[in-house]
Specification:
Blueprint lengths: L1 E2 L7 E3 L4 E2 L15 E3 L10 E3 L3 E8 L5 E8 L8 E7 L2 E8 L4 E7 L7 E8 L4 E3 L2 E3 L2 E6 L7 E3 L4 E5 L3 E6 L5 E10 L1 E11 L6 E13 L2 E7 L8 E8 L5 E11 L8 E6 L18 H7 L3 E7 L5 H10 L29 H7 L3 E5 L17 E3 L13 H13 L8 E7 L25 E6 L6 E2 H8 L13 E3 L1 H28 L6 E6 L19 H4 E7 L8 E8 L3 H8 L14 H4 L8 E5 L4 E7 L2 E7 L6 H6 L5 H13 L13 H14 L3 H9 L3 H11 L4 E6 L15 H23 L12 H9 L7
Parallel strand pairs: 24-28, 24-32, 25-34, 26-27, 26-28, 29-30
Antiparallel strand pairs: 1-23, 2-17, 3-14, 4-5, 5-14, 6-11, 7-10, 7-14, 8-9, 8-11, 12-13, 15-16, 16-23, 17-22, 18-21, 18-23, 19-20, 19-22, 25-33, 29-31, 32-33, 35-36, 36-37, 37-38
Helix pairs in contact: 1-6, 4-6
């Protein structure tokens, strides 16, 4: 049985009538993008600033009637007097209002023909953005009034749902066997309750045909009905309840449940993902240090995949891919365009996530995460009944934070879960990400007899050939080689590698305690438990030191351990190459649901059964520059373009950029028609000395980067480097003969290179199709100063 009143509806048609922002800068349960909280309340009412010159707000309506639209808005002090703001509804221009520095109410009469039943998009646009308290803003908005409130009130704890006249709710269902719907409730006043079942397009998420309709007229009556729901070929359908009546009518739903016509075993699913965990550094995968004894114990009950690759070399797109079964770049908002990193990614509402599938199949869903990138701000909460990101707000060195906080929250949530209740629990631990700070007995566990003579430049943004400042903080709290807030020019690298292993050992220990807790609660044996990562981490043996975002094997190769219910196939190790995007279709398959054809991953169930098949194709995209890795069988192709989508720090730090290279690039670009002004910086002795000589000697330190940026011709230097490096280059590796990808075979195996380039293009075309079906938000995500500060402290945003 599936009790639908125990979960929030997937969609509501209601009418707030008045929209006021909340104190966190959002607009309530339906978070609107493009706004930021900044300042005190206005007459006790919160207000927000737009982060762009154009911002959007959703106005939900239950009827299309003539309405008065009232806005309370004003301009920043730096903007022109009587700043004109254009107002549009659903793409139709309503006129302009003159914004002043004082909050003013503006009224517009909007005819019924411009309103829609359901969501209406209000757009407000000014001519630019202006500085206001260290941020760029367009205008301020405190309130929008457009009618009386007619609301849906859902109380999931009390399992009650109240509909007002004109309102509706819908639940997306994906039952695993044929079901009957039981509906009970009581009406107040004369009304009609409509029950509709729609089919759903699997790629777009749009409602298609009405498969079934039932209408019940009520005159203050109680209702008790049972409906056999139709079967659909894909299993997914939408249940809609709509109350037709005047605003005073009500219908209280007291029971809304699905009864299955045959028994089905829904095993608990626990998905544990450790951020930045490289398979190479787990003793379970052959690392010389004993970093993962608890995972080794766990693996005796599980299946270990020896060769699992991530689909993105950094956090946000990797989790989008894992949660949707689609390649990472399917979720990029503006393919090919330059923008702030946080503006490029948001999980579209029409994506059908793993959590949404499991909730629609009768699971209670909860997620506990420890990273600003995988929060509601970017849409990762979709499908979770309970989603908690409080761990992300705790300091990285908090002994009660990180994995301990996440697992503690999970234990508390499980207190309310019975042994027969199906649940999906997603747990994300951030501790392994730099800075690598272990505590207790784990601190220093692997730091004896290290070689301190091997050093590297230290103290810069994420770039080639230098230890990033945020990673250097692993040891700065000890005052290593100087004051605690100053990064020495060079630092030994082995202590960082040891510290990384120590943090892994600490997380492994906590996971062991959590597995013991699951055993004590009786969940362990019956559960399907996945342990994996979003990506790995480079160490000191490659061009990028102690980081990710590159397509190095240490970043791409992640652990994947799956314990099946009742420990089926326990102790098996599988050498087939698989990818994280395979997890979603695998879980669907294990629950008896055929994975949809639009998913990019493949079910691993045949592999678990030992069934052979053709070599899988694996795709990883994105990161520090425009780049992709394509793996087929034993071969790995890397395609990259340093001139596109790269940060300034990465562009400046590439070691191939010598004086001779620059002169050769100048000659080539001049022949291609480039203007001579592009090369003026080459005559700047100070700038060229810093770039060609000091950079090679010290690495791109923060001090050197600041000095380069202060030069008046810095922008010309960056423009030149982008143009000179704007070329797609290819690398080819034999993963069986060269697992760490040190020997590029692109020139020696041209026929294999061409074969893999064709394969890469085919997968990217599949990705483009999925991207075209995305329904992204009208405005990109925006971050507040505290969020930007946390991400910058973790090396994500740099100092540009």
């Amino acid at each position: 049985m599936i009790e639908l009143l125990g979960r929030s509806p997937d969609a509501r048609i209601q009418q707030e009538g008045t929209r006021i922002p909340t104190l966190d800068g959002s607009w309530g349960a339906e978070r609107e993008l493009g706004w930021v909280r900044w300042g005190d309340k206005l007459n006790g009412v919160p207000f927000v600033w737009s982060r762009q010159k154009k911002a959007f707000l959703t106005l939900d309506c239950v009827s299309a009637v003539d309405r008065t639209l009232t806005l309370t808005a004003w301009k920043p002090e730096a903007a022109p007097q009587d700043l004109p703001a254009t107002i549009a509804l659903n793409g139709i221009d309503l006129g302009e209002i003159p914004l002043t520095e004082r909050p003013m109410e503006y009224r517009l009469e909007v005819p019924a023909s411009l309103w829609r039943v359901g969501a209406n998009q209000l757009a407000i646009e000014v001519s630019g953005t202006w500085a206001h308290d260290d941020i760029e803003v367009g205008f301020a908005l405190a309130k929008v009034v457009y009618g009386e409130a007619r609301l849906v009130r859902a109380q999931t704890d009390a399992r009650r749902l109240n509909l007002a006249g004109g309102t509706a709710v819908s639940y997306v269902l994906e039952p695993l066997v044929p079901v009957r719907l039981v509906l009970m409730g009581k009406a107040r006043g004369s009304c009609t309750l409509e029950v509709r079942i729609h089919s759903i397009d699997l790629e777009t998420g749009l409602l298609l045909d009405v498969l079934q309709t039932q209408s019940v007229h009520l005159e203050g009556d109680s209702l008790q009905r049972t409906f056999d729901l139709p079967s659909t070929s894909q299993g997914r359908m939408c249940l809609e309840l709509r109350l037709l009546g005047d605003p005073e009518t009500r219908f209280e739903v007291t029971r809304l449940a699905l009864f299955e016509n045959s028994r089905i075993d829904r095993f608990p699913i626990i998905f544990i993902s450790v951020d930045t965990l490289s398979a190479r550094h787990l003793s379970l995968y052959g690392h010389e240090r004993e970093t993962s004894p608890q995972l080794e114990r766990f693996a005796t009950d599980a299946v270990v995949f020896e060769n699992c690759l991530t689909n993105a070399p950094w956090t946000l797109p990797s989790y989008m891919s894992q949660m949707t079964g689609l390649y990472a770049y399917s979720h990029r908002l503006y393919p090919g365009k330059q923008a702030e990193l946080w503006e490029l990614w948001h999980l579209a509402k029409n994506r059908w996530t793993l959590a949404e599938f499991l909730r629609a199949a009768g699971y209670a869903t909860a997620g506990f995460v420890d990273n600003d990138w995988i929060t509601e701000r970017f849409g990762l909460q979709q499908g979770f009944d309970h989603f908690d990101a409080t761990a992300a707000f705790l300091p990285v060195d908090d002994p009660d934070g990180g994995v301990r906080h996440v697992l503690g929250q999970a234990r508390h949530w499980l207190l309310n879960v019975g042994n027969d209740d199906p649940f999906f629990l997603f747990l994300h631990a951030f501790d392994v990400h730099g800075p690598y700070i272990a505590d207790g007995d784990h601190y220093g566990a692997f730091s004896k007899d290290l070689d301190l003579s091997r050093t590297a430049p230290a103290g810069g943004d994420v770039a080639f050939g230098i230890i990033p400042t945020y990673v250097a903080h692993t040891f700065l709290h000890e005052g290593l080689e100087g004051p605690a807030d100053i990064v020495p020019p060079r630092m030994p690298v082995e202590p960082f590698e040891a510290a990384y292993d120590e943090v892994i050992h600490m997380v492994d220990d906590e996971l062991g305690h959590f597995f013991d807790h699951l055993r004590s609660r009786g969940f362990y044996d019956s559960s399907l438990i996945v342990v994996s990562a979003d990506h790995g981490e480079t160490m000191s043996d490659g061009p990028l030191l102690f980081g990710h975002g590159a397509l190095e094997q240490d970043v791409l190769h992640v652990p994947l351990i799956i314990k099946l219910p009742n420990n089926t196939h326990a102790g098996t190790r599988i050498i087939d190459r698989v990818q994280l995007v395979d997890l979603y279709p695998t879980l669907l398959d294990l629950l008896g649901r055929t994975p949809p054809a639009n998913l990019h991953g493949d079910s691993l169930v045949p592999v678990l059964r030992g069934e052979g098949g053709p070599a899988r194709t694996l795709l990883c995209e994105g990161g520090l520059m425009r780049q992709a890795a394509f793996v087929q069988g034993r071969w790995k192709l890397v395609e990259k373009n340093l001139g596109r989508d790269s940060t300034h720090a990465l562009l400046l730090s590439s070691t191939h950029q010598t004086r001779e290279w620059a002169e050769e690039a100048r000659s080539r670009l001049l022949k291609g028609g480039a203007r001579k002004s592009l090369f003026a910086w080459l005559d700047n002795e100070t700038l060229t000395a810093d770039f060609f000589e000091e950079r090679i000697r010290t690495g791109l330190t923060e001090q050197l980067h600041a000095r380069l940026r202060s030069d008046s011709e810095y922008r010309e230097l960056i423009r030149f480097l982008r143009r000179a490096n704007d070329a797609t280059v290819y690398e080819l590796y034999d993963l069986e003969a060269d697992p760490q990808c040190r020997g590029n075979l692109a020139r020696l195996r041209p026929e294999k290179l061409l074969e893999l380039k064709r394969g890469l293009l085919a997968e990217q075309k599949r990705r483009d199709v999925a991207q075209s079906y995305s329904q992204p938000p009208q405005a990109p995500p925006s971050l507040e100063a505290t969020e930007l500060q946390r991400l910058r402290a973790l090396g994500y945003l740099g100092s540009e």
